[in-house]
Design goal:
Elements (H helix, E strand, L loop, with lengths): L1 H39 L8 H40 L12 H52 L46 H5 L1
Helix pairs in contact: 1-2, 1-3, 2-3
Length: 204
């Protein structure tokens, strides 16, 4: 009986520590991933965002399952006290270490919280690994671009095209005379012979 009592006390203690650990680490992991995931890679350039969302859901499920395990544990203890009374006082042998629905559900909830906690941790780590590689490749490409620009040097300055030349300035005419364009042309001198006089005038 002493060994059974010690084993039962150890089981209860480990169960309590397990629930506390799952609740604490799940809350911490969810808060850290929500607050600092942007420091790993910008969300605009992140890949496999579905994996990150799934890890958040897994963390939340582990927290909810752990929270619900506390009232289930109290319910299972109450059922166990009833079984103790029925076995030790009423002498009913069928209640010796008899199970109960709350105890069964409590086991399921513990397995559920532990499984989702592990899945959340794995999903978060895998998401960070993938996106760290993406961020590293982006950094390398930026470094290569900057090195190529340094090697190429500056671009030559563009030549500004010349505009058409100005027309020559008009000449100012001399004072006292018309401008050259206003001088009338001289009539040409004719050297043709004079027409002969009419014969009718001679007879008269």
């Amino acid at each position: 009986m002493q060994h059974l009592e010690q084993a039962w006390a150890d089981i209860q203690s480990m169960s309590d520590e397990f629930d506390k650990s799952i609740l604490t680490y799940s809350s911490l992991g969810l808060g850290v991933s929500l607050a600092f995931i942007k420091d790993v890679v910008p969300l605009a350039n992140a890949v496999c965002l579905g994996l990150l969302y799934a890890s958040w859901i897994a963390f939340a499920t582990a927290i909810v399952a752990t929270v619900f395990s506390f009232p289930l544990s109290m319910w299972a203890q109450e059922k166990h006290v009833d079984h103790l009374k029925l076995y030790y006082i009423d002498k009913k042998q069928e209640y010796l270490n008899a199970g109960s629905k709350p105890a069964t559900w409590l086991k399921y909830f513990r397995w559920l919280s532990g499984t989702f906690f592990v899945l959340a941790i794995v999903g978060t780590i895998w998401f960070c690994i993938l996106n760290v590689n993406v961020a590293r490749n982006m950094t390398k490409s930026k470094d290569n671009d900057s090195q190529m620009r340094l090697q190429e040097g500056r671009d030559p300055i563009r030549v500004t095209p010349l505009e058409k030349g100005r027309p020559p300035m008009a000449m100012t005419p001399l004072a006292g005379g018309p401008p050259p364009s206003a001088v009338p042309p001289q009539p040409a001198t004719s050297t043709a012979p004079a027409p002969p006089k009419s014969t009718s005038n001679q007879k008269k």
